[in-house]
Design brief:
The structure holds two protein chains of two kinds. Chain A is mainly β. Chain A contains no helices and eleven strands. In chain A, a hairpin with a 6-residue loop joins strand 4 and strand 5 (44-50). Chain A is globular, with a radius of gyration of 13 Å. Chain A starts with a strand and ends with a strand. The mean pLDDT of chain A is 91. Chain B is 0% helix and 59% strand. Chain B is built from no helices and eleven strands. Chain B has strands spanning 4-7, 10-14, 19-25, 32-38, 44-51, 56-59, 62-67, 72-77, 86-93, 97-99, 103-108. In chain B, strands 2, 4, 5, 9, 10 and 11 form a six-stranded mixed beta sheet that branches. Chain B has a five-stranded antiparallel beta sheet with strand order 1-3-8-7-6, with no helix packed on it. In chain B, a hairpin with a 2-residue loop joins strand 6 (56-59) and strand 7 (62-67). The relative contact order of chain B is 0.34. Classes of the chains: A mainly beta, B mainly beta. Chain A binds chain B through residues 4, 33, 40-45, 48, 56, 91, 93, 101-104, 106-112, 114, and chain B through 4, 31-32, 34, 36, 41-46, 49, 51, 89, 91, 93-97, 99-102.
């Protein structure tokens, strides 16, 4: 079974530039998550999709971050413009559950994209 | 607001030792608790998931316990091996996952 795929694996940009990350979840998984993991911290949920609808984006900095999940499968996370404090690993995860009663199913994580903002 | 704390932040042990990693959380209204493993440059791998109605889960040399009322969980690793070296993360679910900062484990040959 193929796992969660993410690209690119690494990205270096200058501050104020824009960047986009791509995620392909495990086939058949209804729920997709984007997390931000700053060095030395645990992952923080940015946005959660159920199929192609947003379930939770309360911790997404909406003035600069945006995300979409077209057709309920692949997802893209964009940052525009980037700040120094956005340097982190961006993790995508997916799970079978519908997410409406809590994360009751195991989440499967991709390898992440390491972003460095100079 | 849910807060998850993991102690110790780092642990170094000789091969073969049994060890315990600790996790505490502030809000006991959770659906489940999960332990993850993270290797450098890689994503997270789920090790064990304990539903809120359960007390423990076992997988091979790993055993995780949950005391929801006191807001505590432990991950017990038996007969540690160098391949167990990684960061171990605890996460609780009450609608969404809230992670601790992790424990960096080093098992020395």
């Amino acid at each position: 079974e193929a796992g969660v795929a993410q690209s690119p694996r690494y990205k270096i940009i200058e501050k104020r530039q824009s960047v986009a990350f791509w995620c392909n979840p495990i086939s058949g998984h209804a729920t997709l998550y984007w997390y931000q993991q700053i060095l030395g911290q645990g992952p923080k949920l940015l946005i959660q999709f159920q199929n192609n609808g947003v379930v939770d984006d309360s911790q997404l900095p909406k003035d600069r971050f945006s995300a979409e999940r077209l057709k309920g499968v692949d997802s893209t996370l964009k940052i525009q413009p980037a700040k120094l404090e956005d340097s982190a690993v961006y993790l995508c995860a997916s799970s079978l559950d519908l997410g409406d009663r809590g994360s009751t199913d195991t989440q499967y994580f991709g390898p992440g994209t390491r972003l460095t903002v100079l | 607001k849910q807060e998850v704390t993991q102690i110790p932040a780092a642990l170094s042990v000789p091969e073969g030792e049994n060890l315990v990693l600790n996790c505490s959380f502030t809000d006991s209204a959770i659906y489940n608790l999960q332990w993850f493993r993270q290797d450098p440059g890689k994503g997270l791998t789920s090790l064990l998931l304990i539903q809120s109605s359960q007390r423990e889960q076992t997988s091979g040399r790993l055993n995780a316990s949950l005391d929801k009322s006191s807001g505590r969980s432990t991950l017990y690793i038996a007969a540690s091996q160098p391949g167990d070296s990684a960061t171990y993360l605890c996460a609780v679910s009450n609608y969404k996952l809230t992670f601790g900062k992790g424990t960096l484990l080093t098992v020395n040959p």
